[in-house]
Each structure stands twice: as C-alpha cells, then as structure tokens.
UniProtKB/TrEMBL annotation:
Single annotated GO MF: metalloendopeptidase activity
Claim: Aminoacyl-tRNA synthetase is one of the keywords in the record: no
One GO process term, biological-process aspect: proteolysis
UniProt subcellular location: Secreted, Extracellular space, Extracellular matrix, Basement membrane
Protein name: Uncharacterized protein
Length: 532
C-alpha cells in the first residue's frame, strides 16, 4: 500500500495522485524458467475432445478432422485430478488401423463444491513450494497472474518478483478468479456454469445457471455530484443478493473507487490508502475485478463482480483535489423477491461536529425511484423495507488543548434558608482525537482560563411558613359561637408581601388553628322551652 496524503478542508490545496494498479514493477525472477505465450501453447495442442454427457463428446480439434476409422473404447488414464471443486479425468482410446480424430478426451469429475474454509486450489499449489529454496532463500508463495493463466506462477509475500514453478497447473485449476474456465493440460478451457466441460450452460444476469434473466430486476443509475470536497463520498449501496455488478467511471480522473461494508470497514482503498491490486478481490462471497485504464496522468476505474453478495456493500468514491466533478455509472441486479422500485441514496456527510477530539459526521439519506432516479417520499422506502444507510459515523480531527472540565452541580444542601450550598467536580484535562481523555496538571489549564468555581450558594430564599390573619367577629351576638381566620403558607412574612404557596409546602403539624369558639354573653328575654 502507498499512502495518499490529503489536505484538510482548511489547509492550502495540494494535488493527490492516483497510483497505478498494474504491477509493472513486479518482475519475473532472473532464475525463473521463461513463460510461454498462451496462444502458442494452444497452437501446439493435439486434437482432443471434451465429454459432455452420455455418449456425447465435443471435438475441440481446430483442424476440422472428421472422425474415421476403427477407434477402440475410451478408457480412463488416471484418477480425477481433484477430490472436490471440479476436477478433470483424462481418457484415451486406441486406433485399430488407420484413424482420424482425437485420441484424448477430458471428462469433468468431482464437481461438487469443496467444504467451506478449504484453501484455494491454486494457492495450495503455490504453498507446496514454501520449503523450496530460491537462490538460498525461503519464501511464503502466493498465486500471481503471469502471462499464461495455466502456468503455476507465484509471488513471495511482500516481494516484488514472481517465479514460474511449473509449466502447467493441476488440471481443474481455475484460469482466474472471475470466469468459470479451468486449465486442462496447460490450456484454459471453457466450463459451463453447471461445472462441466463442453457444457453451454451460462449464468444469466440474476446469477441463475441456465436462467433467462426473469428472476431479477436490473437497477442502474449515475453518480454525478458536483463540487465535492476531498475525501470519501458514498455512491450507492449494493444489497445482499445483488448480482451482475458493474461500477465504472465515465471520464478519466485521479479519483479512486472504494468498497466498504455496513460498519464502514473498507475492503478496498480505505483509510486514504490506495491498494496495488494484482488479482481479483474476494469480497462478500464473490470476486471483484478491479480495473484501471490509463488516460494520460488520469485513469478510468471499473469494478465488476458476478455476485451474489452475502452482505450489503457500499461503493464509495475517494475524491481528490484537482478534480472538478465525478461521473460514475452503476448497474446491478436484485432478485425479484428483493425487488423494490425504491432505494436510498446515502447523501453527503457533513463536516465533523468538532474541531478537535472525536466528533461525528451526519448525513440525511433520501429515497429515490429506481426507474426515474427522482427523489420520492422516504415513507416509500420504509414501506418497502429498504435498508437505510447509516446516518452518523465517528470522525477524528486533532488532539484538543488542555481545558477545564466542569461536572454537573450536585443537589443543594438546603431547600431554603440562608445556608444552601452545592458543589461540582472541576479538573483540567485533554481530549484526544480518538475520543480518549486524560487528566493533566491544573497549571496547563490556567494558561487558558481561570479555574471555574467548585461551589456556589443555592436556595437562599426564605423558608415557607404558616401565616395567620386576624380573627373574624364572633358569628353570634350572644351565646356560643365561632370565630374564623385565614391561615396560608407563604414564602415570606405577610407584611413583606410574601408569595402564597400550596399548603403542602408548609409543615402540616405546625399549622395554626383557623377557627375557635367564642361567647359574647347570655341572650336576654323570654326563653321558650318545648315539652312533650
């Protein structure tokens, strides 16, 4: 990997450049046997057949010979070349007299997939040379695409050369990571999607072997945002199950395509680093072919994959300074059971929410009609259960300078009166760009600002108390009667225009009586008594 340095948004502009993705600086080791041009290898090939099924075989003899003569029966020459994943069995026959036609044919065998977690067959062949010294050194050998797909060319891990270990890979080895084709006796032969030599079966755009393309729908559109800032910009989200994926730049730029998953983990060109890609990338259960075609100082980039994807992926653009705009076409197919006329466009990320420390980028995804590419109500995407892109992600800027941290004020020690006090935590700390915090010496903060207070007065209001008004006149002019007065809960004395409070604010046990008996003397005059 090579690091591309980008300018920050507020810094002076500088041009970042796109690195080549070809391996022009990877050379064939001087001690290696020379590579053979694949076209020459095919010309030298003798007549042969591939067995299709039953008694049906297909001649691949370019000489156009008609089969004649007394040929004997086909007999296996050796066992299947592989135990799983699609091997090849060689069969031969003898001519009893004068014959024309092929004496060799190849039959597909053990076409079932290998168990999950099995080592790639070509990688396994390269690794068998880990114990073979080259010029006195031992290496960990990995597959490398040389001139001839069916020669065993391998490259040491972290080295810039490759070596041809064998003129032919084992029969049944994939020619590359994209097609179904396999190597047979040093020549790349077409293989049907059913895993059989001679088969004409092909995957349709939906990824169905022998299908007619009726089980999926194609989604296509353009990303042509203007005035983009340097950095990553999401282009489109590819849903799980997507097939026949093609993403391509329509004009040459110094920008780069990137691939990430739903957790913002990059599989290609993440963290402002451009990867040197020399073979298909295994991502989300499929192989992505990453191609870059030079055009002067710029290049056209393209991503192609058959699918289906085993997880949601987002295709992003790593936009660099010096480019005015972008023009990217995308196309993919989704199964009809996942088909929806609506998808989310991710939207642009905002600037980081902070200027130092760890903050967040936010964005507002919006729903579009896949037919018109026009924006529609978000409810349409929600009703269709379309996965909505993340709306927030962390961002890191620079470490913050030391500053005072102030905690929340604690509860006041008194609810009223003249002695209420509350406290809080105050200390000097630094916040770093990864979000971590560290307490530092107070002197580091005093250069920036005075230390905030750690205590303050609170609830210094007069406590509520019962206040009683004057007694009323006796309710009767003679005899037993009652006197009444108002008793209210107030924050201050009545004479100081205290604020009336609810009765529950004062102590009920201390409430003065609000009525009492009174007697202004006996009543004079006749007194009537009723009897039985």
């Amino acid at each position: 990997m090579r690091l591309l340095w980008f300018i920050a948004a507020l810094c002076a502009t500088a041009l970042a450049f796109k690195l080549p993705y070809s391996n022009n600086d990877v050379h064939l080791h001087p001690l290696s046997p020379s590579e053979v041009d694949p076209s020459a290898a095919r010309v030298k090939r003798q007549a042969y057949q591939v067995h299709v099924a039953g008694d049906v075989s297909v001649s691949v003899d370019k000489g156009g010979q008609t089969e004649t003569g007394a040929w004997g029966a086909w007999n296996p020459e050796k066992e299947c070349s592989r135990t799983c994943g699609g091997g090849v069995q060689v069969e031969k026959r003898q001519c009893n007299g004068e014959c024309t036609g092929a004496s060799v044919r190849y039959v597909s065998c053990n076409i079932d997939d290998c168990p999950e977690g099995s080592v790639d067959f070509r990688s396994e062949q390269c690794s068998q040379h880990n114990d073979s010294p080259l010029d006195g050194n031992y290496y960990k050998w990995l597959p490398y695409p040389g001139k001839n797909k069916c020669e065993l060319t391998c490259k040491p891990d972290s080295q810039r050369f490759y070596y041809k270990w064998a003129d032919k890979v084992v029969d049944g080895t994939k020619c590359d990571g994209i097609s179904n084709d396999i190597c047979v006796d040093g020549v790349c032969l077409p293989l049907g999607c059913d895993g059989k030599l001679g088969s004409q079966e092909k995957n349709d755009k939906c990824g169905v072997c022998g299908g007619d393309g009726s089980t999926c729908k194609t989604v296509e559109g353009f990303f042509d945002e203007r005035s983009l800032s340097p950095g990553y910009h999401d282009i489109i989200m590819l849903p799980e199950g997507a097939t026949s994926i093609k993403i391509e730049e329509m004009r040459p730029t110094t920008n780069s395509l990137a691939i990430k998953n739903g957790s913002d983990h990059f599989y290609l060109n993440g963290n402002y680093q451009i990867q040197v890609v020399d073979k298909p990338l295994s991502i989300a259960g499929t192989q992505f072919e990453y191609d870059s075609r030079k055009a002067g100082q710029d290049s056209y980039e393209k991503l192609v994959a058959k699918g289906p994807l085993t997880e949601d992926l987002t295709i992003a653009l790593l936009f660099q300074t010096g480019n005015k705009n972008s023009a990217i076409r995308y196309e993919f197919s989704v199964p009809l059971e996942q088909d929806t006329p609506y998808i989310y466009k991710p939207g642009e990320w905002s600037e980081c929410s902070v200027t130092c420390g760890e903050g967040v980028h936010t964005r507002t995804p919006y729903c579009i009609d896949t037919a018109t590419q026009g924006r529609v109500e978000d409810e349409l995407c929600e009703e269709a259960n379309v996965t909505k892109p993340e709306t927030e992600k962390k961002c890191q800027t620079v470490d913050c300078e030391a500053e005072w941290f102030t905690g929340d004020w604690e509860t006041c020690s008194q609810s009223c009166g003249n002695e209420g006090t509350q406290y809080r935590t105050v200390y000097c700390h630094r916040v770093f760009k990864d979000g971590s915090r560290k307490t530092v010496d107070d002197e580091d903060c005093k250069e920036v600002a005075e230390r905030p207070p750690v205590q303050q007065s609170c609830n210094r209001d007069a406590c509520p108390e019962w206040q009683a008004g004057p007694w009323s006149a006796c309710s009767e002019k003679c005899g037993d009667a009652k006197q009444y007065r108002s008793v209210t809960c107030r924050s201050e004395k009545e004479g100081e225009e205290g604020k009336m409070l609810g009765a529950d604010q004062c102590n009920a046990e201390e409430k003065p009586e609000d009525q009492r008996g009174c007697n202004l003397g006996p009543c004079e005059g006749l007194k009537f008594v009723t009897g039985e």
